[in-house]
Write a structure and sequence with these properties.
alpha/beta; Rossmann fold; 2 domains; six-stranded mixed sheet; 5 helices; 15 strands; rod-shaped
Amino acid sequence: MRFIDEAKIKISAGHGGPGCVSFRRETFIPRGGPDGGDGGAGGDIIIESAEQVSTLQDFRFKRIYQAPRGMHGSGANKSGRDGENIVIRVPVGTVIKDSLTQEVLIDFTEHNQTWVACKGGRGGKGNSHFTTSTHQAPKFAQPGEEGESREITLELKLLADVGIIGFPNAGKSTLISRMSAARPKIADYPFTTLTPNLGVVQAGEYETFVVADIPGLVEGAHRGIGLGHKFLKHIERTRLFIHLLDGTQLLEDATRPGDDALTGVIDNFIHRYQAIRTELGLFAEKLLHVPEIVVLNKLDRLESVPALVERARTELRQRINAIRGVHPFPGEPFVISAVSGYGVQELIFTLLHEIKAQKAAQPNSSEKILLPSDERIRS
């Protein structure tokens, strides 16, 4: 199934049914008087978040939603039937915007959160409502009100605690498959990940967190090179980044005699590190302030060169700290092998500790943007 994370739809609530003009006509009851019933209310358009829905796939095929109108009133003070509501289910993490103004209308961050996107029109009153002492036989009734309509944009932003970022082929898919039960496509060529992947990490007997792997970034992504910024919105909500760097070159080049080889490898790491941060900043400056843990991957033969690796880590730590302006985590940059599992467990416990610390500092940090009118929202 194709991963769809954006959609634009038109929604219209039902119109209210018109009231009825009727007069009571029964044997032995002369001049029975007006008895026109009210029209039924139009159906609402209700949007509901559901954990069972994972993409906006359904909106590829159906882009117009029209709720039924209310039925006409009838004689004997019978009200018309209300139009049925239409419930549209979206994934948790969906942001809904007005297509014209781009104003955020609601942000679905919880399961079973509902929002009345378009309110149905009220039914018109029948002529029985308009009798007075001087006007005892009104021959008119109210028409039903029109239902609301609008065009909205649905944008899915996956909810995850940790986001894995890095160049293509850095080992992001392998790492998420090692940390969780997620099974993304893994191959030895770039851009094997074409859609975001989510995995639940079991960090302890009763402790878990969610990690997201997005397609790799390259320099110039903001100009449309590679997969561009299309999927970066999926890490906007994350509490923490894993900035994954391919450490293969450290084993291949830096083991040669002389200091120049190691200096060149470090420079290459820093260049790639800065390139990713530049692309994040061009997409949204706030992403530059998300805490991150730098990880060197594909280093599964470290026992033979421990001094070299420690020297590289020390220099990288200093230069990364200078770029970020934030003190590194203890043990950063972490050295792992996603294939063999070396160092992954230590990384998981560090991630869990930081996530718990952030939650404790911001117990009500979940984003929720709701319309001012309380009667439209139930969660």
